[in-house]
Amino acid sequence: MRIATPSSSLSSSGCSHFWSSARRSKRLATPEEKAYRDSTDLGLSRRLGVIDLVLLGIGASIGAGIFVVTGTVARDAGPGVTISFILAGASCVINALCYAELASRFPAVVGGAYLYTYTAFNELTAFLVFAQLMLDYHIGAASIARSLASYLINILELFPVFKDNIPNWIGHGESIGDVLSINILAPILLILLTLVLCLGVHESSIANCIMTVTKVIIVIIVIFAGAFEVDVSNWSPFAPNGLKSIFTGATVVFFAYVGFDAVANSAEESKRPQRDLPIGIIGSLLVCIALYIGVCLVITGMVPYNLLGEDAPLAEAFTSKGLKFVSVLISIGAVAGLTTTLLVGLYVQSRLYLGIARDGLLPSIFARVHSIRHTPIHSQIWVGLVASILGGLLDVRVLSHILSVGTLTGYSVVSACVVVLRWKDKKGSQVSSSAEREGVICLIVVALCGFATGLLYRYDASFIFLILTIVIAAGASAALVFRQVYANAPGFSCPGVPILPNICIFFNMFLFGQLHEEAWVRFVVLCIVMIGVYAIYGQYHANPSAEDNIYIEAPVEEDP
């Protein structure tokens, strides 16, 4: 007969505690708890209207890339790059519909994808989603800050007094070995934007609105100025390298739309979140799609696609037509675009830290909100500090190929949350554990099929295998349609559940298969590391049942 030793008993108890903690999820609040939360002064200040939210989404989505990526992709796809942007935009619209439903459903607190995952799935999955998103945000903010610093130096060097007189370590970056790269201006810019965000959401919103409007006006001027120089013969042939180049271009330009999800993280600062958040998310995305299509048509109509430059294709196209003043406007627009993208990125990071710290998964200092400014100052300073260190000392642009993992992970999980929460919402009753388990398995099958299809497409596998993975994903989707019952969502409702969310998951994971191998390694390694962090800290400090951080589900809102 085997006798359990104290060490084995302790190990078994530890594993049991870890497993039970990891499977915890957030419960929905009662109307009384929601009323209590709204009556306290513990939250953020509701200052953002619908226009602010739309401009927030545009500010996060359109950076300097609109002046660059349109031309670089057009070199391969030709005038068909317009279709690439339409396809990618359509995919993002479906993702936006999923975000809009959940943002409308939980309008009381911040958290975004992390919040939704904690409610629909479990604590550990939410923690891992947060980690993947946050690494993207940290590296992305540092990279954007360095690009912004470089653009500002380029503008200064237009004046003869500064030409060739500014050392590289000030703005362009002075490399020291393979890793270090000194840049003084990038952290200064990050500190300034962090101070603006610490002042309050009203002040930072004004700054974002001014720069975003400036950026949009410049893009519109560029489109109209270029429209008079279009030669329609340049649009033929429309797809010189075939349909595959258009689809490949769509996978590349998909990331040009990323940013609309930032609106979901402003839930606690929106005046009428249940109504305005869906409008902000979808409205900002539609504006971005229209601007991207306009720039694509202009740039491919002005210059034959095979003559477009690589570094600054749009600026070079206007210069070739004798419109140098437009090139100057493009530089100004690029600076405004990078500034708003950086500003909104830092804003979103602090709100994610605020949400997860409220739940105890990070130290409580990140959950503190300034009593006068109503901003999470500690979280805001932390994200600014991390970005400043990365941007000032490291050439983080070499890490750009491991980005987008968090974005695709977040988008996929949010789409799955829409499906799962519809199961849990059948007149307040919980779905049976066996039915929920079957549904989650189907969602995982769809995700794996999307990833497999992406790999097969990437390595030019037989068309038969592509069809096979698509058929399997369709079968899993059919099981979700016919073997589950779905309730209507309160507030804004994503149409076509579960089909549209499944399409999101499949396409997002298809894109995941197009990323560099290092990105896949980063995903696995970060998950392992964060599971360790959760085992050491998170599982013992998390408090999903605390009354001051229960996630609020919105009732159906009636217009006054």
From TrEMBL:
MF annotations from Gene Ontology: amino acid transmembrane transporter activity
Membrane topology listed for this record: Multi-pass membrane protein
Tagged with keyword Transmembrane helix: yes
Pfam families (alphabetical): AA_permease_2, AA_permease_C
Domain Cationic amino acid transporter C-terminal: 492-541
Entry's Gene Ontology cellular component terms: membrane
InterPro entries attached to this UniProt entry: AA/rel_permease1, CAT_C
UniProt keyword terms in alphabetical order: Membrane, Transmembrane, Transmembrane helix
Entry keyword annotation includes DNA repair: no
Coiled coil: none
Protein location: Membrane
Transmembrane stretches, start-end: 53-74, 80-102, 114-135, 179-199, 206-226, 246-267, 279-305, 325-348, 377-394, 400-420, 440-457, 463-482, 494-513, 519-537
Entry similarity comment: Belongs to the amino acid-polyamine-organocation (APC) superfamily. Cationic amino acid transporter (CAT) (TC 2.A.3.3) family.
Identification of the protein by name: Cationic amino acid transporter 9, chloroplastic isoform X2
Native source species: Vigna radiata var. radiata (Mung bean)
Lineage: Eukaryota, Viridiplantae, Streptophyta, Embryophyta, Tracheophyta
Originating gene: LOC106759568
